[in-house]
Each structure stands twice: as C-alpha cells, then as structure tokens.
C-alpha cells in the first residue's frame, strides 16, 4: 500500500494544528498508519533551523533569507522524515509545507514563485503533496484565535502587520484556484468537528 502525503495550509490562527491531530485520528481509524509532522521542523536539523526562523524581531531576516532557511529545513525534513515514511507506506500529515513559503515569502514577501520552486527543486527534489487542505477564515477571527493561542508569545510571522496577513491569505486563495486537483479550500468557520468533517470530505477520493 502506497503512502499519501497530505499538507494543511492557511494563515495564522486558522486551526491547522487542531485539525492535524483530528485528521490523523480519523485516518488511523480507517486502517492507515499515520505520521504527523510540521514545518519548519519535523527532523532534528530542521527543528534547529526553526529556532532561527521563528524567534527574534520581525525584520530579523529578509524574505529571501527566510526562503533559503525554509528550503534548507525542508530538505532535511523531506530526507529524514517524509520520504522514509512514504516509502514505508504510511500517510504523512504535515502542518505547512512548500505552499507556505509560496504564500509568506512569495505572496507577502515579494519573491517570485519560480525562484521559490527552483529552491524546492534543489532542496527537496520537487516533492509535492498528494493533497493540500487550505483552511480559510476571516482575518479578524483568525487573529483573535492566534492571540488566544499564543498568549502574548507570538512568533515573528504572527507579529507581522495586517496587510502582510491579507497578502498571505490572498496568495493561498490564488494557489488553490490555480491547482484545484491538489489543493482544496476548507472553511474553518465552524466547530472543530465540522471542520474535520469538511477536511475528510476533501480527502475522500484518497481514502
């Protein structure tokens, strides 16, 4: 049985971490072995790079430097965690992947999609998910959830200004419209259980 690579995407506060856990339980209940992971991180080397990316002042790194650091972290994550799990026939559920770089460093940071994908080709041999679920939520509601989640300890990206987050959301929307076979928009407005049901429906053809 071949493994499947599923990624959850979206802006800050849309509930990706909550849905990742719920989806993992639901997919395991269907008889699949599941590995859950995250970006940046997911392997020892990538977790070390995560600390560089997520802490410090908002302007600690330029979008170009961020893209390079994310590509390096992703390369280690793919090599050490994702590809081995897929080779074992496991499902891999990942909180963020290449589309976050495309939205944050591309859509909000101004880097071209071709440059970002070129880095991905070198670092991770162009690995793409079988399905990407983009959780969508009104920016004000998402900001409230993120603030409640972070408890005053927001990371560099959560601290960005409103237009930055709007640009991120718009980039995710545009990517999903351009890649309907791989990417599915999932409303995160309802209860966690309702969002999980919508997410499972968006994975129906793979399950």
Tell me what the structure shows.
With 207 residues, this protein is an alpha/beta fold. The protein is built from eight helices and five strands; from the N terminus they run βαβααβααβααβα. The protein has helices at residues 16-29, 44-54, 63-87, 98-108, 113-124, 139-150, 162-178, 192-202, and strands spanning 5-9, 34-38, 91-95, 131-136, 183-187. The protein has a five-stranded parallel β-sheet, sandwiched between helices. Helix 1 packs across helix 8 (192-202) and helix 3 crosses helix 5 (113-124). It is globular and about 45 Å long.
Q: What structural category do the secondary elements indicate? A: alpha/beta
Distance between the termini: 12 Å
Largest sheet composition: 5 strands, parallel
> Helix segment count?
8
Strand order of the largest sheet: 2-3-1-4-5
Report the β-strand fraction as a percent range.
Answer: 5-15%
Shape by Cα distribution: globular
Secondary-structure element string: EHEHHEHHEHHEH
Average pLDDT, all residues: 92
How many runs of DSSP E, i.e. beta strands? 5
Q: In terms of per-residue confidence, which ranges show pLDDT below 50 for 5 or more consecutive residues?
A: none
Helix content: 40-55%
Radius of gyration: 16 Å
